[in-house]
Specification:
Largest sheet of chain A: none
Number of helices of chain A: 14
Helix content of chain B: 40-55%
Number of strands of chain B: 12
Largest sheet of chain B: 10 strands, mixed
Strand content of chain A: under 5%
Strand content of chain B: 5-15%
Distance between the termini of chain A: 38 Å
Distance between the termini of chain B: 74 Å
Radius of gyration of chain B: 24 Å
Oligomer: heterodimer
Largest interface: A-B, 33 and 41 residues
Structural class of chain A: mainly alpha
Shape of chain B: globular
Helix content of chain A: over 70%
Chain lengths: 290, 419
């Protein structure tokens, strides 16, 4: 490639790079800077550099560790649960079943519904006089209503279930695309050699969708680690802060207490944790064949 | 042809003059919270149009603001330099933004009304609450009372011909209602959100205590607060509250009350409720050990911001809006009591028994929202947004942890929350 071609190439990507720098890199750098200050958005000129004070305070904050613990549990559970449910449904949709195109459209419904609408619907389903309790009572499965969101342990589980419901269509969609790209000849050849269904799945299907699985779960992991609306709208982080996650902690600190510097430090820790985990996860998957 | 050309040129000149005149109008951006349904927004927009039509030099741009994350919306807009001249807002919002130096003094407006001799049209306790260090930072425009509702038919079925008047009576009524099988869980309140803290605060004030004393010292660990927390724990342990009370929001509580699943519910003094449910009655404030049986009334105000480029035009609009917004209540179906006493002679308030009861019996019993603290303060906004008392009350009803320990943690959180 000649110098002129290279220069033209650089020129052509420059506008995109500038846009990325403005809307993506600048806020990250600004956020990192903010985490070393006592920044107050309402009076930015009064902000002062405070060194690592925000981080020192953060690592002494009990709320940070309890939020981090549930954030990790929530992220792993939803990413894994969403992947497994999505994989199962993608495999079903990949078969020649009745009304496949209609079912594919329905499959996307939870993902299309806005988080606020989904949260209101789930509340109505799950509260003591809600549809689920009424159904279970009428079937004789329970003798009195179950408090799905009113008890800490139940709320932790149901927040995850509701988020899996909201997120699985994404996994199903991309995995279905992955499944459709696997050459059918591979299955036919293996069947002639006597491979049964589990072997076909393990030796052909899973390796065939490895890359797409990596992308799907990594994205789910990032989205769920940062997720705010699914939980905030459903439980507001309660009861007794049992479903409090780092994003809600950061939001409260910034907009309710106006401690933007401290809130930024929570964001920076989330960024570091997420970058580290994602890199480790990608490295681990790249090094292994499924 | 020449005549036609001259006519066209003449028209163009007139239009350009009008255009220049319009361009010279001062634009005021008014952010109004969505206080009611679609009708409210329509009536509010029509009111703004009415104002605009009456003005040659000011044009108001109306913006509806949803309640979801409204603090974030205002904070970001103000910090981002967006022009908000004035707005309506929740109870302590003006104090919250005043602390950050974003609120414009409304003393000139007060002086205007004083000069006109109409300042006493405002509910006195409401006007006083909207001051900070002697400066008027909000103009009260409506008062919402938080009350206990009871289902008269269910009480009769349980053998009662009057509502309970004290906390211990309320407990006994609930026990009887449950024992007689009238309903399984007699009392519901929205403990999932900040309304739970409001409900608690009302009961705490009945018991002669609050969250802060008048010097802003946190007193949540007072003996009276321990007693009030114990009351709710006892209610839960006796099975008188829904097991998922910690997950209930106001909509769910309203639904339970209107469908006859509970006999008592905590909520706003919504007049329309009795049209849907004639057996619904509003209780007078409950009596604890504090003999005044106070009512918690929340004053909401209009405020102006330092981001305004034209304080004078903003004052002109706010004055007009304050004096002419009766339609928001009468036609806009907004369920609250106006802060202006003269508005209350409108049939919408004199003919509805709920409003009548509120104005005649309840409002005179109103105390400061954070009594024993008399003035509002910035952290009140944070207090409801972060909801430490609601969360502690959740812990009290869901766990066996000693209440003194729960309240010690709650006190530390509230102290940490203070700016």
């Amino acid at each position: 490639m000649g110098y002129k071609d290279k220069r033209l190439g650089y020129l052509m990507v420059t506008p995109s790079l500038l846009i990325i720098a403005v809307i993506s890199i600048y806020p990250v750098v600004y956020g990192i800077w903010m985490s070393f200050t006592d920044y107050n958005m309402m009076n930015p000129s009064a902000s002062q550099f405070v060194g690592i004070d925000n981080f020192t305070k953060l690592f002494q904050d009990k709320m940070f560790f309890s939020s981090l613990a549930y954030t990790v549990i929530y992220t792993v559970s939803v990413a894994l649960g969403g992947y497994l449910v999505g994989l199962g449904l993608a495999m079903l949709m990949n078969r020649r079943i009745f009304a496949r195109s209609v079912m594919r459209a329905f499959l996307l419904a939870p993902w299309v519904v806005s988080a606020s609408v989904a949260a209101v619907c789930w509340k109505w389903v799950l509260y003591s006089d809600g549809i689920l309790n009424q159904l279970m009572l009428s079937l004789g499965m329970i003798s009195k209503p179950v408090s799905f969101l009113g008890l800490q342990h139940n709320a932790r589980i149901w927040v995850i279930i509701c988020s899996v419901w909201k997120q699985f269509p994404f996994s199903a969609l991309v995995l279905l695309a992955g499944l459709q790209s696997i050459n059918n000849d591979l299955y036919e050849a293996a069947q002639i050699d006597g491979a049964n269904a589990p072997k076909l799945f393990w030796h052909i299907t899973l390796p065939g969708i490895k890359q797409i699985s990596l992308i799907a779960t990594t994205l789910q992991f990032i989205w769920m680690f940062n997720n705010f609306d699914n939980i905030y709208l459903l439980t507001n982080g309660g009861p007794v802060k049992s479903t409090f996650v780092l994003s809600i902690f950061s939001y409260n600190t910034a907009f309710n207490r106006l401690q933007f510097g401290y809130a930024a430090s929570i964001g920076v820790v989330m960024l570091i944790a997420l970058t580290g985990i994602t890199m480790f996860y990608q490295k681990a998957l790249e090094g292994n064949t499924l | 042809m020449k005549r036609l050309l001259a006519l066209l040129l003449g028209c163009l000149m007139i239009l350009s003059v009008i255009g220049v005149a319009q361009a010279e109008k001062t634009t005021i951006h008014f952010w109004d919270m969505i206080w009611g349904g679609e009708v409210y927004v329509e009536v509010a927009k029509a009111l703004v149009e009415e104002f605009n039509a009456s003005q040659d030099e000011i044009e108001v741009v109306y913006q509806s603001v949803p309640w979801a994350d409204y603090t974030q919306a205002f904070t970001t807009a103000i910090a981002g330099g967006m022009q908000i001249d004035c707005s309506t807002g929740s109870g302590a919002m003006q104090h919250f933004f005043a602390k950050t130096g974003s609120i414009l003094s409304l003393d000139p407006l007060i002086e205007m009304w004083e000069a006109e001799g109409t300042l006493d049209d405002f509910e006195p306790f409401a006007l006083g609450q909207m001051q900070l260090n002697g400066v008027q930072i909000g103009i009260p425009w409506q008062i919402q009372s938080k009350v206990l509702w009871y289902n008269e038919a269910m009480l009769k079925e349980a053998g009662y011909d009057r509502p309970p008047e004290t906390l211990s009576e309320l407990f006994d009524y609930c026990v009887t209602i449950k024992e007689k099988g009238v309903c399984d869980t007699p009392y519901a309140f929205p403990l999932a959100m900040d309304q739970g803290a409001l409900n608690y605060l009302g009961f705490a004030q009945s018991n002669g205590t609050g969250i802060w004393d008048d010097d802003l010292n946190v007193i949540i660990d007072s003996e009276e607060n321990v007693k009030t927390f114990q009351f709710f724990r006892d209610m839960m342990q006796a099975g008188l509250l829904p097991e998922d009370v910690a997950a209930l929001d106001q909509t769910l509580v309203d639904g339970m009350f209107e469908s006859g699943k509970v006999a008592f519910a905590y909520g706003a003094n919504v007049a329309a409720l009795i049209e849907r449910m004639p057996e619904a009655k509003m209780m007078n404030p409950i009596m604890g050990d504090y003999q005044a049986a106070p009512l918690q009334s929340i004053v909401h105000a209009m405020m102006a911001y330092n981001t305004t480029k034209s304080p004078e035009a903003t004052y002109t609009f706010m004055k007009w809006w304050s004096e002419n917004n009766l339609k928001l209540f009468s036609e806009g179906k907004f369920a609250a009591i106006p802060a202006r006493i003269s508005f209350r002679s409108d049939p919408v308030f004199t003919e509805n028994p709920i409003y009548k009861q509120t104005i005649e019996e309840l409002l005179p019993k109103s105390i400061e929202r954070f009594w024993p603290r008399k003035e509002l303060f910035a952290e009140a906004q944070t207090f409801f947004a972060e909801n430490p008392v609601g969360i502690s009350l959740q812990e009290a009803v869901l766990t066996d942890r000693p209440i003194e320990d729960i309240l010690a943690d709650c006190k530390a959180t509230i102290e940490d929350m203070m700016f």
